[in-house]
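Q: Can I see a sequence and its folded structure?
A: Here is a first one.
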Amino acid sequence: MDKTIKVRRKGGVSKDLLAKEAKLDFGDEGKAPRQPLVNRLTGKLAGPRVAHMNLATTAIVGHLEVAGSSLWAWYELTPLQWSFRTADKRAQVWDNVRQGLAQLSGHAIKWRVSSKPFPTYEFARKLAHATPNPLPANEAGDFDLFLERQQQRLNTAPVDENVTMIGVRVGPAPAQRTLRRLYAAETSSEPISDDVVKLLEQVKKVNELVAATDLGGRPLTPEQMAWLRHRSIAMGMPVQLPVSPVQPIWETDDLYAFSDPVDWVYKPMGSTVKIQAKIAGREVTRYVAVVSVGRMPDRMFPEDGRAPWMLATSRLAYPVEWSVTGVLLGADTLTSVADYERRRAQGIKKHYEDHDEMPPPAVDRAISQAVLSYDEITEGDSRTAVRFQGPIRAAVFADTEERCLERVRDLIAVYGRDHHIELVHGSGQAQLLREFIPGEPWSTTGFQRRMSVGYLAAAMPHVSSTLGTPTGPYTGYTVGTARRAVLFDGHFSMEVLNAPGVFPLVSDPGGGKSHAVGSMAATDVELGDYVIVLDPSGPLARLTELPRFKPHSRLLNLTESHPGTLAPWQLVPEPRRDKADNDREYDQMVRRASQERKQLAYDSFRMMMPEAMLRDRAVDDVLHKAIRHLGGDVTVNASDIFDVLHGLGEDGKRVAERLHDARQFPLGELLFPEDGQLDLGIQAQDKRLVVITMPGMVVPDPDLGREQWSVEELYAQPLLHLAAFYTSRFIYSRPVNDRVDAYFDENHFMGRWGSGRALGVRLGRDSRKFNAKVVPASQNPDDILAVGPIASLIGGAFVGRIEDLQTAQNAMRLVRAPEEYAPVVQGLSPKPAPGDPVDIARTGEFLFLDPYGRIDKMRFDASWYPELEAALNTTPGHRRIKAGNEMPSPFIDEARDLFRLDEGLAA
């Protein structure tokens, strides 16, 4: 029986196809069965096709693009800070973006939001260049291994970077020779023709409009123009770096270099576009799906407290590309349209009333919205009158079609659930994807969004989670708005920004404080810095036992060391001849060191005397005489002072007996070497890492008089003084160009004694002049805020979990954030629920105030260094349970197949 089958094709074209009933005709034996005519024709119509890349762009000159009959100018938008700002400042940021867009009224625009994997090769190259003297190699590794481990971690972690660009239609396309003359006019002294002057004025005007307010648009460089075109035509593909500098002028024939290596394979009614590209001689495949933004809810931004509506994609574990293309219409164009919509809504309500029916609530809402729009367009200023009209698309990609469609479903669910925005995954994917390419026309029917410029500004795709410094080692990643790599060079503040180098770090016990201090200190040692760590409780002493650091480190345990570990004469190193310009200067350095040894010995021995003996001037006299007799040579043994004192009469014997009693005490013996056991290694000036610990030491209370101190507290004072002196000497005795890093864990312990407070204040004031990064760590922000004027000298700060609300509010002063963000600090590194294992992926979270004044949540990450991670595990008992698959990696295939093997590839 014959039947008629109608097949609808795109554009509404239909054909009547006649076919017989579906029968399989095997014909001769051994031949393949012949398919019915309807199946063969339908397969040809709906089968895979290859898109023809007849692109509209005919020339690129600098940041200008000729596409069809239009001239476009392209800009990169300056990243905005949104996190941890007051409501008023957020409103101001939004209003500035709204004003910047409103100033472009009458222009067509294309917003392009893309992403690129973290440039690990460039990161390693810069870090290696900035590290001329890394830690010497040994059997446990070298600096190349350090770089390789950091690169591997960055390659396999989803820390991609967002790039937001905007294209603005300048006007009709000029002749290409006019564009060339415009570009050459900047460096040529020849007279400029009138057509070039006119074009120059148009471009300059648009440049100024885009650069204004918080858009902060900067013209794209030739490299950025090439990157954008590569990324748009071959979406999701790694971009191959050119072997030579990118030329600023691209002729028509040159532009085929972007499209020829790329094929788009699609089905007319398919759900994805298969992109195949040849990159560095390799075949790379991606599947891309495009969704269109449908109905969007009414909202009052930023009063409703919601985040910018494009920002939701930054929190996803996969990248999302955006294309917003349309026209910004002014009041003169929209008045008649707004009046029509107002009358239309009112007419619908009247129709219900004429039939004695109650209109649904949606009608009243439509009338209110139409009246408001009409008022804004006719009576409002430029910021409220301008409207945007055009399609908004988002695209996701993956290495398989199944994964790509899974991401589409997830994206639709996220926006429907969290933002009540409808996303539609429709057909015609190749044509929709074409809109992402700069210069290509866009659809003017279907999913056209018309919204106020304020609603469009509320997208704010250029809100950034960038944190840290432009250069430096990988320290961790942000966990707030998005997941971005955090590089942190503590000396960037002093060497580049001319700012202080004090970075306080506070958190409750278990918040990751010691882990953060240890990971930063270990990284600094790898970079070749001179690092000293004052860790009273002692767990960071494990750093000195790591095979990589052991040959270059020294541990000073003030409570368990051998006698003479802190002998005063050995704490001051012998000056080096190569540090002096001449013999006279060297002689002065030797005499100065001798005097310092004698003064340090006098102060230390005097601190061992009870208050009653210090009131007797004879005690000071005999101490001066005995130390003067011993001299200031570095080989003086402090134990020799007993024989000298016994020869100074009764007063000398009395002092000798007191010092002899101190020597018998476990703490006191640290000042007195055994006979012939001088430890010149205490100087440790050649060590890259020195850790000073004092577990179990009882620190004297400065609020109590000396007469109320116990014997242990009395003998602890000179040791603390010597430790402060040693730390100060370790830092200040080096050339100002040497990088020095000082970490003070449990800073409240240090702040309880005078020498420690004085050292903290001095380092805070001198950090910039002596290029010393200072990190005081404590459990309470008041311990740092109370140490003199150090709060005004900080170059940044880290605040971890603090459960007490009042303490968390005080900590906001360190990161210079409003107090209303204190609950965020209370929720950092959350404790597990009863019965649940500890998730290491949620520990070590901090608010970080970076040297630029930006604030966001970050997590310290040392997982790339297993030996260090194990050494920094300070949790008692069983090992913490690691969360499986904590950081999914959307770029794992690119990292493995391309980036690690080919240095010529970059994001």
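Q: Show me another, different protein.
A: A second, unrelated one:
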Amino acid sequence: MAHLLGGENITVSFATRTILDEVSLGVDEGDRIGVVGRNGDGKSTLMRLLAQRSEPDEGRITRRRDVTVGFLDQTDVLDGTLDVGTAIVGSAADHEWASNPRIREVMGGLVSDVDWHATVSDLSGGQRRRVALAKLLIADDDVLMLDEPTNHLDIEGVAWLAKHLQQRWRSSGGGLLVVTHDRWFLDEVCTRTWEVHDGVVEPFDGGYAAYVLARAERDRAAAVTENKRTQLVKKELAWLRRGAPARTSKPKFRIDAANALISDVPPPRDTLALNSMATTRLGKDVLDLEHISLDFDGRAGGAVANTEGSARTELFHNVTLRLAPGERLGIVGVNGAGKTTLLRLLNGEVQPTSGRLKRGKTVKTAVLSQEVRELDDVDHLRVIEVIEREKRVVNVGNKEVTASQLVEQLGFTNQRQWTKVSELSGGERRRLQLLRLLVGEPNVLMLDEPTNDLDTDTLAAVEDVLDGWPGTLIVVSHDRYLLERVTDHQMALLGDGKLRGLPGGVDQYLQLRGEAGSGAGASGPGGAGSPTASTAQTTGGAGGSGTGIAGRDKGAGGGAETAASAADQRTARKDVARIERQLGRLSDQNRKLHGQMAEVSQHEPLDLKRLAR
């Protein structure tokens, strides 16, 4: 495989800390590399160096002369004054870019629901991210470098991007370097993994799953070596205690031997261990939404707005959801379908237009919001002070642990504990707020996009505590790895006002969305309609006593539907969807041909050969 680009003896330091220490590596044709590591260890720095967006303190970046690199930064670099079309394709005429199948695929996959003439500054964060991705992907670069490309993308967008990158080049062509916390995405796309830590970059073969296995084996071998080293050190120290060091030269030799044994021991890497908190006892009743309907303007003081531009006025229609003690529910859905609003309904922050929320007497809820604005009021405090405000001593595993010890277990070193909240990174703020919530000992925990700003190691630790957390858990996330790991079943909001059970999990959701998007005259968020469905029922979590029931949607001709089997109905829906897709493609081709004929006919003299084509 031909070499595309790389770095030789790269060293980068910030203040007194060395981020990369004489690192040498390279990207060859056919490489699909995922970059993982803790927040702040240099993943984005490494990518910016290789993209030649910044310079190393020492060493050099090499690149083959004809290689072009496309780079997606975490920050928004779009010109907010441009309209969407100009931001993506520049001044190119429609017929110029529309004739390219790759560009059409990118447009359809990322921005089909975005107003082509809207101003970039008026778009939501997710729409701006998709526009930036579309602008990058329509180019024909040899190497793509993507820094957190899945940020602000929903499950559908992540799945589309993974498929596009899998098919973008032949297996031995192109190069991809991606920094992301989305472990499913890493497994789908990457064939190699670079772990950035402690100033070095360690390569592993395979995606995230293979990397975890290889790292576990590496750590096991290191543990064996460390155990042997420790035993030797103990023997040396014991001998030194028994002897009289000043009497002969032999003790000095022993001291030198002991120092040699520990001289190359690296400083311990920060450990992140989250412990499950004791929870208040839950009664039989937890939270029930009974026949809930909610208008877009609702009773939330205008907090719920109609972002679809459609005639529909209801965000939810006749939705019933019953949560059982210990139930673990994942919520997925299209942007604007009401996932966050559903959490606010369950928490009592939003009042429904009709229906009611039934709340158990012993229920104590806690919500981790997307923006973590709850920390704004304590920005002037230090990390340790925030936790001590809640509790100075916490009972963890029948053992009393001080707030300082708990914060350290969460990854805040002794020095970092005294950092002001206003100076924390996004990931640190999210960790602090999660710890703050758990210290409050809730028995119903709601997490709204909890993976934002967290690295893979932190995510694994969060999943570990959620695995053993005994309360009721509701998770809204586009991270399917997290959903499949910590929840027992999932439900979907498809933009039709209903909550639908997903016995087939996230794969079933993507299938439903694919069928909906292919229908002609589709409506709803994202420009994709939602297929009609009958009752969606899912069994609850612990004890199997809880049931989530989506609002019923009986289509026209209810008697005929009951006579047909469920399998026949699914087959019929698939056939209809396939025919509608075919009709849609034929309609597009017809429209394109008429446009080309009109264009040719406007030129003098008439080009009959081109018209015949």
